[in-house]
Structure formats: C-alpha cells, structure tokens
Amino acid sequence: RLLKLGEIGLRTPVSSKSTNDWTPVGELEEFADSAPPNPPPVDDLEMEQHTYAPLWRRGFAFVIDTAFILVLWFVLGNLASIVIVARHMDSTPEEVQAALRPLSIALLFFPFAYFTLFEGSRFQASPGKLLMKIIVTDTSGYVPGFGRAALRSAAKYVSGLVFFLGFLIAPFTPRKQALHDFIARTLVSKY
C-alpha cells in the first residue's frame, strides 16, 4: 500500500515474511513490477556509472508536458467557465468576472500542481518524463515525495527568472542538475 501511495520506493529496505532480513522492496517478488525502477545508487563510488538525463531529453519531456498542460487548461478551463457563466446568466458582468476569478487563480497554479503530483508520486515523473524514460529522485535515488516535488516545482520559477539560465546550467554540472534540482536536492535520471 505504501508503495502505491509513493511513500516508499523500490529501493526502500523492508522486512517481509519471506525473508528474515531487510530487503529492498524492488527485490521482493510481489513488488518487482509495481513501479518504474529507481536509478542506480548515486554514492561517490558509483556516481560515474549513473546515467543522468541529458538536457535534450529533459527538454522534450518539458515540451510534451507543456502540450498536456495546455490541452488540459483549455478543456478544463472552458468547461468550468461555461458552467460558471451558465450559473450567472442573470448576473452583471462584474459578478460574472468575480465568479470566474477563483477559476483563473486555480488555472494559474495548475502547472505547479501537475508537476508536484506526478513527480512526487510513485511514478516519480510527469507524463512527458515517462514518455522520455526519465524520473525524478532525491539525491539518494529514492522517491522524492510530495514536499520535495513541491519545492522543485516552485523552484522552477526561480530557474526561469533570468533567461532560463537555471535550466541551462544542467549540462555543465556533474549530476546534470538544473538550479531547481540543486534547490530541492533532486536528480533527473534515465531508467
């Protein structure tokens, strides 16, 4: 149950009835196919063998996610607008505007929620990242969790502030981390 909720990852050690010792969840038969594999450990000895996601792969994932977000924005925004306007047919334009304001605010935060919920879940990736076969982990290779994913999503705004330099530094860092990855202490890896 915890694996499905994203509270633990495939590398989390657990004690089970089949073994008398602590074993990573992913090595237990009943959980072997439950989620995308975690990347290899990233301690200093194995850092050279670890495969971090290159900028081009992350870029394509971002384009795919942006397309998903725009379609969802358009569909959900228009459907909600139609419902709100239909409920306020006899209202003044100012009242309709006031009724639409919460929807506008919700749509503004939609990309933040999209990335936070997907990357903090057991999938560890947004749909675009999954299609590009990359996942987000904490610096130890585990599921980042919703708190770290929320920090990462918020920090993306900082990465984009000055000509997207926070994103563009990724190819020049040892672990291919963008500024928001440094802030949230996360990695993006191929699987």
Describe the fold and architecture:
- The chain has helices spanning 2-5, 55-87, 93-120, 127-131, 145-159, 165-168, 179-184; strands spanning 13-15, 22-24, 134-138, 186-190.
- By secondary structure, it is mainly alpha-helical.
- The strands form 2 sheets. It has a two-stranded antiparallel ribbon with strand order 1-2. Strands 3-4 form a two-stranded antiparallel sheet.
- A hairpin with a 6-residue loop joins β1 and β2.
- The radius of gyration is 20 Å and the shape is globular.
- The model has no long low-confidence stretch (mean pLDDT 87).
| Inertia-based shape | globular
Can you give the mean pLDDT?
87
* Span of the ends, CA to CA: 23 Å
Stretches with pLDDT under 50, minimum 5 residues: none
Q: Could you give the topology of this structure?
A:
Blueprint: H1 2-5, E1 13-15, E2 22-24, H2 55-87, H3 93-120, H4 127-131, E3 134-138, H5 145-159, H6 165-168, H7 179-184, E4 186-190
Antiparallel strand pairs: 1-2, 3-4
Helix pairs in contact: 2-3, 3-5
Short description:
The chain has 191 residues and is mainly alpha-helical. The chain has seven helices and four strands, in the order αββαααβαααβ. Helix 2 packs antiparallel against helix 3.
Characteristic terms for this protein:
single chain; 191 residues; 4 strands
